[in-house]
């Protein structure tokens, strides 16, 4: 069997900007150019749905973000009609469908964890989730982890066996980022911001695990009235975050531009990129900011340590007080921002190259298909 005879089904749980969907948006066109025939299936809930179609990759609307028998039947039909030989799922809901449909058709299944999140579940829901993942692992040929930290956590939770797992770090296309990135003034105008004043920014799904409320509280303690906090994205937490910004008296100091495709092209508007996440797999937006040379302040969690390096002075204890102090100090020290940005850029470009990521995924495909 030649590589160009192999249709591959890529299942995503969302088409909103975020690590998993954006990873597949990078992967699928590259696979197509290499002779594979990727078909992407997922909900039409974000701006990336159209981006897949524009990239020349077939995209099929499927409700992988909720459990329903009709979706499983739809995907089974898609597998038969396209002659799919490999199923690769990304994220929880997609992972359930992917492993089930692969097992039903006796196909190899690859599943990528783009973060393992279950801590806010109740006792019963947590046991159900972990038990389900352990069952699905029996029907999975290869499990991909996007960070060593996530790999270690998954092994400790018995979500997969050591021989199943591959660590494939997220990677960035530095050349594409550099070409697409707007210069500082233009990026600020695109966000509707004045040219002067300091800006702290982030791009994230509005989810509790991202702790965007901590950033709002931290900025509210700073005396600089010209300082702006830009939160790019949307999600279930948006209403609460907007309400908190109002309650803190931030007014126009808190900016909510909404969901933006290719948000990294606007990162040069920021003096600091901030991420206060409680937990991450391997945050792509942080990596993009690093590759662009933006100084990053990030909560001191395993995934961020893996990205920035354990000795980085951009790592911050995940408390409001620590972020307030770190923002205040870094905003007051242009030389420190320059040094941190340069450190970030060097690390991102040397350790997290998109070519290495894509080659490793293709190698996993060839391994399970014995090509």
Structural features, described:
The chain is of the alpha/beta class. It has two domains: 3-171 and 353-369, Rossmann fold, CATH 3.40.50; 174-351, Rossmann fold. 45% of the residues lie in helices and 16% in strands. It has 15 helices and 13 strands. It has helices at 19-33, 48-54, 69-82, 92-104, 123-137, 148-156, 174-180, 184-190, 212-220, 238-247, 284-291, 302-308, 320-331, 334-351, 354-369, and strands spanning 7-12, 37-42, 58-61, 86-90, 109-113, 142-145, 165-167, 199-203, 228-232, 254-258, 272-275, 296-299, 315-316. The chain has a seven-stranded parallel sheet with strand order 3-2-1-4-5-6-7, sandwiched between helices. It has a six-stranded parallel sheet with strand order 10-9-8-11-12-13, sandwiched between helices. α3 packs across α4. The longest helix is centred in the last third of the chain and has 18 residues, at 334-351. The termini are close together. The model has no long low-confidence stretch (mean pLDDT 94).
Compact description:
This protein has helices at 19-33, 48-54, 69-82, 92-104, 123-137, 148-156, 174-180, 184-190, 212-220, 238-247, 284-291, 302-308, 320-331, 334-351, 354-369, and strands at residues 7-12, 37-42, 58-61, 86-90, 109-113, 142-145, 165-167, 199-203, 228-232, 254-258, 272-275, 296-299, 315-316. The chain is α/β, with parallel strands linked by helices.
Continuous helix count: 15
Helix content: 40-55%
Identify the CATH class of the largest domain.
Answer: Alpha Beta
Low-confidence region ranges: none
Within the CATH hierarchy, at the fold level, what is the topology of the largest domain? Rossmann fold
Name given to the CATH architecture of the largest domain: 3-Layer(aba) Sandwich
Mean pLDDT: 94
**How would you sum up the global shape?**
globular
């Amino acid at each position: 069997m030649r590589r160009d005879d192999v249709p591959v089904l890529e299942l995503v749980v969302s088409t909103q900007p975020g690590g998993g969907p954006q990873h597949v948006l990078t992967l699928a066109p590259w696979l197509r150019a290499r002779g594979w025939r990727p078909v992407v299936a997922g909900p039409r809930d974000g701006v990336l749905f159209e981006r897949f179609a524009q990239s020349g990759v077939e995209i099929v609307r499927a409700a992988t973000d909720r459990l329903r028998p009709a979706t499983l039947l739809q995907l089974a039909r898609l597998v038969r009609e396209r002659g799919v030989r490999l199923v690769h799922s990304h994220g929880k809901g997609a992972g359930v469908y992917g492993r089930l449909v692969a097992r039903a058709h006796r196909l190899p299944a690859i599943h990528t964890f783009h973060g393992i999140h279950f801590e806010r579940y109740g006792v019963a829901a947590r046991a159900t989730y972990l038990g389900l993942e352990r069952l699905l692992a029996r029907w999975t040929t290869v499990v991909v982890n996007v960070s060593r930290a996530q790999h270690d956590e998954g092994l400790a939770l018995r979500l997969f066996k050591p021989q199943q797992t591959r660590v494939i770090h997220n990677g960035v296309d530095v050349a594409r980022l550099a070409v697409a990135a707007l210069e500082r003034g233009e990026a600020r105008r695109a966000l509707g911001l004045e040219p002067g004043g300091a800006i702290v920014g982030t791009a994230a799904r509005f989810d509790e695990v991202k702790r965007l409320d901590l950033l709002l509280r931290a900025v509210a303690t700073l005396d600089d009235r010209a300082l702006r906090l830009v939160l790019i994205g949307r999600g279930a937490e948006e209403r609460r975050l907007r309400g908190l910004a109002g309650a803190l008296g931030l007014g126009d100091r808190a900016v909510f531009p909404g969901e933006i495709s290719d948000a990294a092209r606007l990162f040069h508007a920021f003096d600091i990129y901030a991420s206060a996440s409680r937990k991450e797999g391997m945050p792509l937006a942080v990596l993009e900011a690093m590759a662009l040379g933006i100084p990053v302040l990030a909560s001191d969690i395993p995934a961020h340590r893996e990205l920035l390096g354990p000795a980085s002075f951009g790592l911050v204890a995940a408390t409001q007080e620590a972020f307030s102090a770190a923002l205040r100090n870094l905003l007051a020290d242009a030389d420190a921002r320059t040094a941190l940005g340069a450190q970030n850029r060097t690390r991102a470009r040397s350790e997290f190259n998109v070519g290495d990521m894509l080659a490793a995924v293709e190698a996993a495909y060839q391994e399970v298909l014995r090509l």
